[in-house]
Amino acid sequence: MGAWLRPCRIDHAMDRPTAVLSVDMEWFTHIPAYRNARGSVSDTDIGRAGVETLLDLFEDAGATSTFFVVAEIAQHHPDLLARVVECGHEIGSHTHSHVHLSEVSETERREELRTSRKTLEDATGASVTGFRAPSFDITPDHFETLEATGYEYDSSVVPCRSIPGWYGGEHTVQRPIPASHAVKGAPPSITELPVAVMPHLRLPLTGTWLRFFGVRYVLWGMRLLARRGIAPVLYVHPWELVDLPAVDGVPRRVYWRTGDWMQRAITKILDSRFAFVPARSLTETG
Ligand SMILES: [Zn+2]
To answer: Which of 15, 142, 143, 280 could form an S-S bond across to 138 if both were Cys, CB 3.0 to 4.6 Å?
Structure first.
């Protein structure tokens, strides 16, 4: 427990361009590729060590972040959530159980959003105003549901080109904007913080695409966005930073460059000249 009690240093140089390196805080067993696989594992918290690594890397870089947390984790690991908050990071919701929102009923969607926010607020004492949907899977009533369940901003839009078997092709918004400008009929009280995509190429700059295309691709895209006055919003999963167990039926792409490679990649991104801030701060300045 010793290392856990280290105080966290928070230090932003305001003359640097701003970026967000958010964390979708979920375990390996939450991801659809695992849930759809033939095999299984007995460990239920694969990725926990990745959270600890990320907290250390953020601290070393003087960076703060937003952790979009699958709220059921808070019930089993309250100490870990407390540590995230103590280090100055924002807590957002990544649903209660990591379901795909389009695959459940309207009532269940509302319950996932409402319960997760309450669970995370009760566990941390922090106010939870931001949301990210698992697999960026949202429904036409998404923004109304967010408003009805007490959220202020969303970061579930990926304005990339259409990628077969993935997502994309539906949105073009690149910078923080009222949701009503991104989706017809959405309430203007919700701000949308779209996830970064490479200008012109319009492929995602982050997540699996970091592991496919490498750190230079990400840093190049971040610089291009910054030149346009856009703060890049990136994301990482804690399970990407650990050595994953082989599970029958989980595709090879899930394992590609996880573990040490990803730890080095995140270190290099955090060492760039960007000032990394929580997502909520973009809604305040954007
Ligand atoms: Zn997720």
So the answer is: 142
86 lies in some domain: yes
172-224 pLDDT, tens digit each: 788 888 988 888 888 999 999 999 999 999 999 998 999 999 999 999 999 99
pTM of this prediction? 0.93
Per-residue pLDDT tens over the stretch 244-279: 999 999 999 999 999 999 999 999 999 999 999 999
CATH label of the domain that carries residue 113: 3.20.20.370
Q: Which residue range forms the structural domain that includes residue 279?
A: 23-285
User: What is the structure's pLDDT at 126?
Assistant: 93
Ligand 1 centroid to Cα of residue 226, in Å, is 26
Q: Is residue 13 part of a domain?
A: no
Phi-psi region of 113 (alpha: psi -120 to 50; beta: other; left: phi over 0): alpha
* Ion ligand 1: residue ranges with CB closer than 5 A: 24, 26, 134
Taking the centre of ligand 1 as the mean of its atom positions, its distance from the CA of residue 221, in whole angstroms, is 23
Q: Is the pLDDT of residue 106 over 80?
A: yes
Domain membership flag for residue 9? no
Percent of the chain with pLDDT over 70: 94
Give the number of domains in the chain: 1
Within a domain: residue 7? no
State the number of CA atoms in the 13 A half-sphere of 17 facing the CB. Answer: 19
